[in-house]
Automatic annotation (TrEMBL):
The protein's name: NADH dehydrogenase [ubiquinone] 1 beta subcomplex subunit 4
Organism: Drosophila yakuba
Main localization, broad class: mitochondrion
Source lineage: Eukaryota, Metazoa, Ecdysozoa, Arthropoda, Hexapoda
Signal peptide segment: none
Transmembrane regions: 69-87
Keyword Cell inner membrane in record: no
GO terms for MF: oxidoreductase activity
Family designation: Belongs to the complex I NDUFB4 subunit family.
Length: 113
């Protein structure tokens, strides 16, 4: 794949910016006198702070969409409803067998005695 001169220049600028940020981080994180500045022992990362703030305020910026509705429906509501239906059908079938005398009392799974 051949890149144009503009693309190569963009990649080069992006790489240089990455190296500059990396060098600054290494310089700050390896400074043995950092505690004397009152900043503590960690480097403040603006990107990480923005990410954490976004995670905390995610609910405040939630916009219901069709996709989020379908996700909630298929991931939460539908499995619970199917499981409830299966339990009810199984219990009703077992109860019907008990009431019609197809299962003797001594053969029942749950007894009062």
């Amino acid at each position: 794949m051949v890149l144009s001169a503009e693309e190569q220049e963009f990649i080069k600028r992006k790489h240089e910016a990455t190296l500059k940020v990396r060098q600054e981080f290494l310089k700050q994180s390896s400074n043995p006198y950092r505690h004397a500045t009152g900043e503590g022992g960690t480097v403040f990362d603006a990107g990480l702070a923005r990410f954490q703030a976004m995670r905390v305020s995610n609910y405040e910026h939630f916009k219901p969409t069709g996709k989020s509705f379908r996700t909630g429906l298929f991931a939460v509501v539908l499995p619970i409803a199917l499981y409830a239906w299966a339990l009810k059908a199984e219990r009703d079938g077992r109860e019907e067998k008990y009431r019609t005398g197809q299962v003797a009392y001594k053969d029942r799974q749950f007894k009062f005695i």
